[in-house]
Amino acid sequence: MEIHTASGNPSxxxxxxxxxxxxxxxxxxxxxxxxxxxxxxxxxxxARILNEVGARPQESIVVxxxxxxxxxxxxxxxxxxxxxxxxxxxxDLAIESLSELPNAILAV
Length: 108
Hints:
The protein is of the alpha/beta class and 108 residues long. The chain contains 5 helices and 5 strands, in the order βαβααβαββα. It has a 3-stranded parallel beta sheet, sandwiched between helices. A two-stranded parallel ribbon has the order 1-2. Helix 4 links the parallel strand 3 (61-64) and strand 4 (79-83).
């Protein structure tokens, strides 16, 4: 399994945050909007990332706390996980905190 991260922030911000948290080595590629060429909510944002890492949408899980990126990822065929405000979503999984993610994914 590969883990990549994507954000509307520039990629250098993601690199800095991951390094500061001491988890940089756990993440494959940190994609910022500067590398993708679109903002996170754009309909092709996740398609470009999945293509770049060679992942099929149907074999991918997209995790986000915002609805628009998840809706776009779902249209590609990716499984979606909404973090926070879980009761008001229509995605494959809904969790309140990222700490719940490993168990939620294993339960599927």
